[in-house]
Amino acid sequence: MSFGSDDPGYLEFALAGLGDGREVGPALGGLLAAARGLLNADCAYILRCEGSVLSLIASDNLPHRSDGSVSLGVGGPEARAAIIAEAVVDRAGNSPYLGRGDLALAAAPIVLRGSVVGVFAAARQALFVPSEVRWVRILARIAGIAIENARLLEAERRRARYGETVGAIGTIERVQVQPFCQRMAAVINDVMAADITDVMLCRNLLQVEAGHGVARAPETWELVRAGEHRIENFGEPAGLDRIDTRAGGAFAASFKTGVPYRCADAQENPKAPSGLRTIGVRSILVIPIPGDREAQGLLIVGSRRPAAFDSDDAAFLRLVAERVGLLLRHSAIERDHARAAARQEFLSVVSHELKTPVAVIKAYSEVLDRRAGLSDWPGQDRTIVERIGEQADRMLAMIEQLLDLQRIEIGLLELQVSPFDLTELARGAAEAVQATTDAHTISLDGIDTCPVVADRRRIDEVITNLLDNAVKYSPAGGPIVVHLARSEGWAHLSVHDEGVGMSADDATRVFDRFFQVGAGTYRRGHLGLGLGLYIAREIVAHHGGRIAVQSEPGRGSIFSVDLPVSTVDLIAEPETIGVVGTEAAG
């Protein structure tokens, strides 16, 4: 089909399809066919300008030898039209798309909202006269309308895809972290038409998923790849399997600040992540995966096209990151609940199963001890019987700690409260512990009487535990002082030793369950389950009190307990408080 310059049919044909929401390809195809007829051109084509690159997006009768993408720096009439934003007339031999010296070429920039987004060009045997160059400019404007309409249509479809994807993710209730992240990488890459997508998570999230139970705090600096997807024949980015956020860079900054990172053209930005630049990635979009207080990881998307991601893409990826973060948190909570339930069951079974046989051993050791007293047993045999009894007592105490841990964690720690003298109780505990050591001297100072309302047995357990720890962590012996004081509304008890002390870091963790100061340093006989101080803290807290420690390595420790005092008259029966259920576990 061809049109003469005086035939009005060319304009109708050139404008056909611009308003019916068709794809950019058919719309531009009709425009190029009309342009060839209007200009009597051998060929016509349209280039997209992205950053510093011209890419062929539509053509009519363009020779097969033409290249698809050309840098503006290569030059040629098309590049000049894009750079100066004016129409250019030249020989086609200077064009990287034609290279035919026998043809004349006219090129005009396609401008949208003040920016050059492409170039319209046509070539023919005859030179272009000014009136025909004016038509080239008009056709470039029409091409701009077609490109803008297609862009708006694609944006509408893309937003619909994004909405459907976010909605689908919203129906997911529970996940396994690694398979879920792998699937999310594939979905994001497909929906966003990206070339590469990576889901990076804090290493500890994957370790916990694998059952290693690693604490979160020490691992938040390292991100590891939990999911990835890239188009076929796309290179492997160097250094993206692991990100050390301490080393700085765009990824680290986004992770630490929680602020998204977007780069329109990494090839033009030396500060862009080098691992992606080296494999040809130009557009980069990074969104942090939110957590409760800090990011849990990053969603990283890349494209070989410059300026490939806009605000709609960022908004979509942010919604995905929020949903992924929520699912990761729910997954962690479910794992914690499952492990807590398993731990409770284990503690219950082990404690109860151990308690009976150990109690039997203790009973038989007492029988043997009585027989030894009535008979002329050798001294070595008497010592063996005594050691059996001592170790049985130790085992029973550890079992009771496990049972207390279970009671605390399920809210069944009972307090049988009654008024008593804290000074008298502390004196009895000191005498009992003093009987176990000749290397230490335990003394009391402070007030003579200190009435409180509390659970006598539990407070005795707290004081005994503090004294036992003072003995254990004073291997060279020395004085241990129990000090008692009173202020308005409070009773104060402290245990001061001159032992090995502890570091500031250990002091912040000493009341954590299963934590043992100096584990691996002192011989195992000095260590238990690491539950004594944790249980002591919970007992004191259940009384509405406080427990704390002051210590320095090599200078001993001071453990202090503050309890509410009481001036009420003695009551006939103890009162049970803090009860959940009717019977204590165990």
Keywords:
586 residues, alpha+beta, Beta-Lactamase, Helix Hairpins, six-stranded antiparallel beta sheet, 14 helices, 42% helix, disordered N terminus, disordered C terminus
Would you give an account of this structure?
This protein is an alpha+beta fold and 586 residues long. The chain has 4 domains: 9-157, Beta-Lactamase, CATH 3.30.450; 172-335, GAF domain (Beta-Lactamase, 2-Layer Sandwich), CATH 3.30.450.40; 342-409, Helix Hairpins (Orthogonal Bundle); 415-577, Histidine kinase-like ATPase, C-terminal domain (Heat Shock Protein 90, 2-Layer Sandwich), CATH 3.30.565.10. Helix content is 42%, strand content 23%. The protein contains 14 helices and 20 strands. It has a 6-stranded antiparallel beta sheet with strand order 3-2-1-6-5-4, with helices on both faces. A hairpin with an 8-residue loop joins β2 (53-60) and β3 (69-71). α2 (24-39) runs antiparallel to α4 (130-170). It is rod-shaped, with a radius of gyration of 40 Å. The model is unreliable at 1-9, 210-218, 520-526 and 567-586 (pLDDT under 50).
Give a count of the beta strands, DSSP E runs of length 2 or more: 20
Q: Domains counted in the coordinates: how many? A: 4
* End-to-end distance: 95 Å
Give the spatial strand order of the biggest sheet: 3-2-1-6-5-4
Helix content: 40-55%
